[in-house]
């Protein structure tokens, strides 16, 4: 398996559908590259588990009986993943059809990479201010958060 895409959800069924549709298209765009899409649901009360199971047969669904939170949810899903590369995808996120192929190609061309972040845009194509967040450092971790610019 080349790529595992992990999405952690909690009561976001409407957003999750858009995310999964986009992710599946991006996976198909990669062609013969083996990939998997894993959704860990954090004990949602909005019917997410049954809805994903019914509408997304290609998705590997993990239904947590308790809300593990974002970090533990990703760690739990990671244990079930089999990809050489793992991509953490927020359920509010849509991706372009070529996103996974481009990121995977870049990662494989640069074997010393430890992590990749991609630019984020709103629905009108404007770059989001969250893009201005730098790499984590000890000083950044202990400094007050400031708005960009």
Q: How would you describe this structure in keywords?
A:
globular; 149 residues; 35% helix; 5 helices
Architecture blueprint of SSEs:
Elements: E1 3-9, H1 13-29, E2 35-42, H2 48-55, E3 59-64, H3 69-80, E4 85-88, H4 99-109, H5 138-141
Parallel strand pairs: 1-2, 1-4, 2-3
Would you kindly provide a written description of the structure presented here, covering whatever features stand out?
With 149 residues, the protein is of the alpha/beta class. It has helices spanning 13-29, 48-55, 69-80, 99-109, 138-141; strands at 3-9, 35-42, 59-64, 85-88. It has a four-stranded parallel sheet, with helices on both faces. Strand 2 (35-42), helix 2 and strand 3 (59-64) form a beta-alpha-beta unit. It is globular and about 40 Å long. The chain starts with a strand and ends in an 8-residue tail after the last helix. The model has no long low-confidence stretch (mean pLDDT 88).
Poorly predicted runs are none
- Major sheet: arrangement of strands: 3-2-1-4
Could you tell me the number of beta strands? Answer: 4
- Shape field: globular
Strand content: 15-25%
Instruction: Give the termini distance in whole angstroms.
Output: 41 Å
Quickly count the helices: 5
| Element-level helix/strand string | EHEHEHEHH
How many whole angstroms does the radius of gyration measure?
16 Å
Averaged pLDDT, please?
88
**How is the biggest beta sheet arranged?**
4 strands, parallel
Q: What is the structural class? A: alpha/beta
Helix content: 25-40%
């Amino acid at each position: 398996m080349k790529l595992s895409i992990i999405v952690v959800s909690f009561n976001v069924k409407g957003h999750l559908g858009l995310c999964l549709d986009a992710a599946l298209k991006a996976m198909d765009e990669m062609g013969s590259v083996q990939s998997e899409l894993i959704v860990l649901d954090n004990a949602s009360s909005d019917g997410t588990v049954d809805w994903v199971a019914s509408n997304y047969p290609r998705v590997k669904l993990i239904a947590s009986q308790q809300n593990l939170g974002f970090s533990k949810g990703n760690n739990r899903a990671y244990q079930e993943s089999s990809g050489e590369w793992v991509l953490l995808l927020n359920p509010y996120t849509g991706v372009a059809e070529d996103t996974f192929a481009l990121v995977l190609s870049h990662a494989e061309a640069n074997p010393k990479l430890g992590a990749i972040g991609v630019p984020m845009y709103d629905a009108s194509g404007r770059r989001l201010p969250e893009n201005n967040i730098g790499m984590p450092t000890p000083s950044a971790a202990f400094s007050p958060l400031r708005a960009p610019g």
